[in-house]
Every structure is written in C-alpha cells, then in structure tokens.
User: What shape does this take?
Amino acid sequence: MDRARPGQAFVLSAIVAGLMAVASLAGLLLDVYRDATWAKAAWFGNDLVTLLVAVPLLVWALYAARRGSRRGQLVWWAMLGYSVYSYAYYLFGAKLNVLFPLYVALFVLPVLALILSLGRADLTEVARGFSDKTPVRVVSGYMLFTGFGLAVAWLAQWAALVFAGVVPALGEDAFGLVAALDLSFMVPLFVLGGVLLWKRRPWGYVLGAIMNLKGATYTLVLTVGSMAAAERGVAGMAGQIPIWGAWTVLGAVAAALLLGGVQGERLGGASHEAVARREPGRSET
Assistant: This one.
C-alpha cells in the first residue's frame, strides 16, 4: 500500500466531508432555517440524504481512491459534484442564516478539489479499466434522455411564463433558481457526457460516473424532501414522490451499470496519489 502524503485535492475533499456532516447535523438538529414550510422540507431531505448517503460515500471513496481504486476515484469525484450542486441551492436559495459561511465553503472547496484532482489525473488510465462489455450505449442513452428532457421541461415552463403568463408550479423565484442551476450544471454535462460515453472517450466514462451517481443521490434528496413536504401538508408534493423515486432508481441503475464495468480496481497497479503526480498532459480529452 502506498503511504505517500495525501495531496491537496484529498485534503480539501476530507474537509468537505467533515463540513457536510456538520452542516447536515446543524440543519437537522437546530432551528436554523428561516424559509417557508415547503423549503424547510426540502432542506430536511437534503440534510438527511447528505448525512446518511453522500458523506459516507465520500468518506469511503477517499479511502478507496487513496488505495488506488478506480471506482473509489470515480465515486469521489461524483460526491464532490454532489456537494457543488447541492450547496448551490443553500448558498443562493436559502434565506440568510447562521450556516452561510459553511454553504460558501461547501460550494467553493469541492470545485477546487475537482480542479486539482481532475486536472492531474490520467483519464486514459481510468477509462482503460472499464470492460469492453460495459453497456455504455444504454447508460449514454439514459444520460442524453435526461439532459434533453430537463432542458425541454425547464424551457417550456420559461416560455409559458414569458409568453403566456403561466406561473410555474414552483413559483417564479424558486423556478428561476432551479432552472438556472439545472440548465447550467446538469443539462450540459449530461448531454456532453452522454455523447462522449457513446463514443467511449475517457471523459465520457468520468462524466458518466459523476453525473449518474450525483444525479441519483440528488433525486433521492428530492424524493425524501417531497415526502417530508407532503407530511407537513404542502399541497401537490405527494404526487412528486413516485416521479423522483423512479428517477432515483433509474439513475442508480445507470451508475451501477457503468461502475460495474470497472474490471481492474487499481490504477495501473499504483495508488491514486502516484497517478495524481503524473504529468497532466497525459490525460486524453
């Protein structure tokens, strides 16, 4: 086992895992949110899933990636992506509260960790570990369907509001935030990742793992949040539970199909830290 000192991306990611746990526990145990009932239910779902799913996955991934695991490395990147997307909602959508500095950190630090880690990783070596039998066409088809589906859904509601005065069910302000984040974070990466994965390019495998696992984790957040909102009497939320639940299953299956195609667990027989020290110019894009 390689005992080299953890790199900067690893240290930043460990800090992210700790801060996610602190923010989630504070949200669940303390009266910190100043938002409407439906928003508090959404934060409850987010905090619960982050604490019970995202944090353990990130901790395991850091341990596994440190030992040279391809799956661990991919799950690590996926959970960093989850933190960026998830805490963007807190940072830009929650009413100002005592946890605001944590939201800033949990949005910025995983971005820096992803830049440091992805920028130095040999993605060709990562992709080489996938079996030729990995069902990339099935997974990429799901990604393209999800990406274009989100784009159509949000743009259709935008057009209905602007040209016909039909206010989205989320409300104009909430719709603006969710649509903006999905159209900037989710849609481009789902579509680009789906295209590259269809062509079996290294970035396709990486984006496929990140987007499908991150997506499944966040739709689980939406499922739990919808259940909490329905229990608290928020109208219309009960009907969303089966939708987000089904999307969680689909995303989890897509992530499992892709990650299940990893044959060689170790990155060329070396630890992740050894790979991270290679020249960045070797990555194939």
About this structure: The chain has one domain: 8-278. The first helix runs from residue 8 to 29.
